[in-house]
Structure formats: C-alpha cells, structure tokens
Amino acid sequence: MDVAAAKALGAGIAVIALAGVGIGIGNIFSALVTSVARNPSARDQVFGLGILGFALTEAVALFALLIAFLILFT
Amino acid sequence: MAAAAHKIDALGQFELASVFGPVGASVRFTQSNLLMLLAGALILALLYFGMRAKAIVPGRLQSMAEMSYDFIHGMCVDQIGEEGKRFFPFVFTLFFFILMGNLLGLLPFSFTYTSHIAVTFALALLVIVIVTVVALRIHGLHFFSYFFPDGAPKLLAPLIIPVEIISYLSRPVSLSIRLFANMVAGHVMFEVFAAFVVMMAGAGALGSVVAILPLGVNVVLVGFELLVACLQAYVFAILTCIYLHDAVHLH
C-alpha cells in the first residue's frame, strides 16, 4: 500500500469520531427542545447553555477534523 | 489559487506574507499583524464614535456600542458575580479582539489571524495565567484545595488530584484549539467548495451548470461561518468568565 492511499484511509478513519459528536449534538438539542417545551419562560437561560454545550461538543468534531487535515495535507 | 492545475490547495490561504514592501519585510510585519491593528482600530472607533453623541435616545452606532457593553457586562456579572465587574475590561477586550478577527477574516482577500494556533494559544495562555494569578492573590495557598473538592473520600485523593491537575492544565490547550480549529475548518471548507466550482466550470458546458451547486453551498457556508465567528468569540469569552468564577469562588 502506498503512502497516499494510507493517508486517505487514515484521514477517513480519523473522522469516525464525528459519529459520537453527532449523537452528542443531537442529545443537546433534544434536551433543549424538551426543556423549552416544558417551561417556555426559561427559554433565554436554557438557550445560552444549549449553545455553549453545542460549541463544546462541536470542538471535539473539529479536533478530529484537524487530525484528518494534518494527515492529508502535511 | 484554486485554479492552479485543478488542485485543492486547502492550507495555502493561511500562509503569512509580509506587507508594506521591504520595510515591512525587515521587521516581519505580516498581514496578520496588519489585521490585528485594524481590528483594534475598529473596536476603538466603534466605542469612540459611538459614544461621542451621548444622546439619551441612542442612534444606531451608539446603541451598538451600548449593547456590546451591556452584553459583556451582563455576561461578567451573571457568570462571576459582583466581583466580575473588575474583570469586565479584560473580557470585553478579549471578546472583541476575537470577534473582529473572525469577522474580518470572512471578507474576501482578507486574512483570519485567529486561524493561527500561535495567536489563539497566546490568548489562551494569557487567560490561564491571569486566572491563576487572580486565584493565588485572592486565596493564597488555599487555592490548591481547588484540586481536591470538599467531601470527596480521602482514599480517592491519589486519583482525583492528578485528574484535576491535568484538567486544569489542559484548559489553555482546549481553549486555543477550539477557536483555531473552528476557523481553519471553516476556511478550508470554503476553499474546497470554491475549488469544486472552478474544476466543474473547467469541465465543459454541462459542468458550469452543475457548478452552481457548490457555489450555493459556499453561499450557505458564509452564513454559517458568520454564526460560528460570533459563537466562538462568545464561547471563548464565556469560558474565560467560567474560569474566572472558579478562581474567585473556588468551586
């Protein structure tokens, strides 16, 4: 197997982590929708927390993406 | 850049080049530094020209300046408590420096200085040093009880203390990589889809019709990146506030 093929495979494997991130972000927003539906007046406070959780979870996806970029382009 | 031999040059856009000819080159003054200065000038201009009118019913610029002040002030007081007012200038500066960097980077032919790990890590290191100094000044050596929460079983100490220390030390790393990776990933996506447009348009008449699709994706991406630019500045500022809260109140 030559290096280019191994690099492509490695980059593909590195982004498997996105599956977990997808589950995590789905969880965050399902909890956000549920809590806003239960108590619409709490929307402003809960929304900020939800966005914060989204950004923290999304960061994990970007770490994986970064590794993939490092494998592909360096 | 993308047109060159139909090859995707994803990371070429992050290369530094010196500006202002030989004078700039001799002091290594790059477009990154130029945009940092521009960002600082824009923030100062917003506050100066916005607040010059001092009207009771604010105009557009003045309400923008007032809203940004209120927004960060509220964030500091909500997250840190009343002591948060002392840290307001720091958080305000940090937030607007990052926000301006992210937003200026979205302009065509511009450069995103927050897409360099050197910049974001320097900012995160500044945050973490200030947090530690504040905690040491307020609590003295009692600060080190932060690494062992009250009420935890003494037997678990060898396990909890290293974990807490590692999580404390990994804060600047995660803080800086989050911002840097977000910016890099966004701009690489722009580049990749723009390269698709060029490649497809180069493939004949049918190709240039299909090339509308990646162009549309890029238009949507600009909107998404505007959201990400504001969100990441917000996340950086609010995490700084949370760390400062820990430093002031110790858990």
Topology:
The complex is a heterodimer of chains A (74) and B (251).
Chain A lengths: L2 H12 L3 H21 L4 H31 L1
Helix pairs in contact in A: 1-3, 2-3
Chain B lengths: L20 H6 L4 H22 L7 H21 L7 H18 L11 H23 L17 H13 L1 H31 L3 H6 L1 H38 L2
Keywords:
heterodimer, A: 74 residues, mainly alpha, F1FO ATP Synthase, 3 helices, B: 251 residues
CATH topology of chain A: F1FO ATP Synthase
Relative strand content of chain A: under 5%
The H-and-E topology of chain B, N to C, reads as HHHHHHHHH
CATH C-level of chain A: Mainly Alpha
Number of domains of chain A: 1
Q: Strand share of the residues of chain B?
A: under 5%
What's this model, at a glance?
With 74 residues, chain A is mainly alpha-helical. Chain A contains three helices and no strands. The A-B interface holds A 51-52, 55-56, 58-59, 62-63, 65-66, 69, 72-73 and B 10-11, 174, 177-178, 181-182, 184-185, 188, 231-232, 234-235, 238.
Descriptive report:
The complex is a heterodimer of chains A (74) and B (251). Chain A is mainly alpha-helical and 74 residues long. Chain A has one domain (3-73): F1F0 ATP synthase subunit C (F1FO ATP Synthase), CATH 1.20.20.10. Helix content of chain A is 86%, strand content 0%. Chain A is built from 3 helices and no strands. In chain A, helix 1 packs antiparallel against helix 3 (43-73). The mean pLDDT of chain A is 88. By secondary structure, chain B is mainly alpha-helical. Chain B has one domain (18-249). In chain B, 71% of the residues lie in helices and 0% in strands. Chain B has 9 helices and no strands. Chain B has helices at residues 21-26, 31-52, 60-80, 88-105, 117-139, 157-169, 171-201, 205-210, 212-249. In chain B, helix 5 packs antiparallel against helix 7. The N and C termini of chain B lie far apart (50 Å). The relative contact order of chain B is 0.14.
